[in-house]
Design brief:
mainly beta
């Protein structure tokens, strides 16, 4: 298991970063490695996110001294979405099948969690996100088939998309974590445009299902000082609360958004008019 730390930065620091430095600060290029766990700890609201990719043996996230606790979820909650092959999660002795697009909310004080794949040649890819938690809420398995998607955008503006809210008050209770899955329809390539910020919550994006040879341009920075990251399939971006987070690609794609902060009000956004972007 590998845990990398990324420190928080101010808008002024972002303005001074060159392309390499911007990527080192905000882009996570490796998420899924077969047989391993890759995690990133960002000091933006102390979110931990990354990939668990079991092959022939179960994998378990073991973090204690790194967080000043006795076990990983002693003071944290965890969200999981599988974007790979079939697998399962065993939580304190009880096993749950996890097909592609299945999710899970796991509350604080849960001790024993093991991730498994059914087929090592087509392993499950568990994208995991953990944030600090103050209360224990029930563990809930979440199937995409149980979620009524929120429809957004339209074809003529190339942002026709479905938003599946996995960890959200209308699905399950959580302390700080929100997590969901957005699918852009064929012919659409823009997400979250017109753009917005939400000063009260930071966010991470995992971009995936990007066809080979295509790329996403992820835009960030303050609205009057925008920057961009060029993102490949199954890479993730860190978006501070003061930054816009929007993107466009050379094809349609999917992404998982995860938020943490002062509230869990999905629509608490500060919209930015197109004419105000620079």
């Amino acid at each position: 298991m590998k845990l990398e730390t990324r420190y928080a930065a101010s808008p002024r620091e972002m303005e001074r970063l060159n392309t390499t430095e911007l990527r080192e600060q905000y882009l996570v290029e490796s998420i899924f490695i077969p047989g391993d766990i890759l995690l990133t700890y960002t000091h933006n609201d102390r979110m931990i996110f990354g990939g668990v990719t079991p092959t022939t043996t179960p994998l378990e996230i073991v973090l204690s001294t790194e967080l000043g606790v006795d076990y990983f979820l002693e003071r944290r909650e965890l969200g999981v979405i599988n974007i790979g092959g079939s697998g399962s999660i065993t939580i304190e002795g009880e096993t749950f099948a996890m097909e592609k697009q299945d999710g899970f909310y796991i509350g604080k004080e849960t001790k024993d969690i093991q991730f498994m794949s059914n087929d090592a040649s087509n392993p499950a890819k568990f994208y995991v996100v953990s944030v600090p938690a103050h209360k224990k809420y029930p563990n809930v398995k979440i199937s995409i088939d149980q979620i009524t998607p929120r429809l957004a955008g339209e074809a003529k503006s190339m942002n026709d998309r479905e938003i599946f809210q996995y960890i959200h008050p209308n699905v399950c209770e959580s302390c700080q974590l929100q997590m969901g899955y957005t699918i852009l329809k064929e012919g659409s390539s823009w997400n979250t445009m017109p753009s917005h910020t939400h000063e009260r919550r930071m966010e991470t994006y995992l971009y995936f299902d990007i066809p080979e040879g295509n790329r996403v341009f992820h835009f960030m920075g303050q609205p009057q000082e925008t920057r961009h990251l060029l993102v490949s399939n199954e890479q993730a971006c860190i978006s501070p609360s003061w930054s816009i987070h929007t993107g466009v690609a050379t094809s349609n794609y999917s992404f998982i958004w995860s938020m943490c902060g002062e509230n869990i009000t999905y629509d608490d956004m500060d919209h930015v008019a197109m004419e105000d972007l620079r």
